[in-house]
Specification:
Elements (H helix, E strand, L loop, with lengths): L6 H14 L2 H17 L5 H38 L2 E4 L5 E4 L11
Helix pairs in contact: 1-2, 1-3
């Protein structure tokens, strides 16, 4: 993927990252979007309206992602409170978590 330059390209890249679940990419896109926002000061009102619509669509996706992450954390905590449970790691292999598993519970 080429690096986005305009604010519209940045917003499109953020949307793509959100839709694909690439939350790591969002970190780098934040700085690029901030830089592109400075350049957007010279845009026409029509262009700004289009960008606002893109940003609002991304906000809806961000809200949904945040809600999903909270729900997953809540569910994981419920399962931890029950004892051990199984998850799937990055390699796709099943792994046991909890007192009877190989990894200890982490409580914060």
């Amino acid at each position: 993927m080429t690096e986005p330059r305009s604010l519209a390209e940045c917003l499109a890249a953020v949307r793509a990252a959100l839709l694909s679940g690439d939350f790591v990419a969002l970190d780098g896109l934040a700085a690029l979007t901030e830089r592109a926002l400075v350049d957007a000061a010279s845009l026409s009102p029509d262009q700004m309206t289009q960008l606002k619509a893109l940003a609002e669509a991304n906000q809806t996706l961000l809200d949904g992602a945040r809600k999903g992450i909270r729900a997953a954390r809540r569910r994981a905590q419920e399962l931890r409170d029950l004892g051990s449970f199984s998850t799937y790691g990055p390699s796709g292999a099943r792994q046991q978590t909890g007192p009877s598993g190989t990894r200890p519970l982490h409580r914060s």
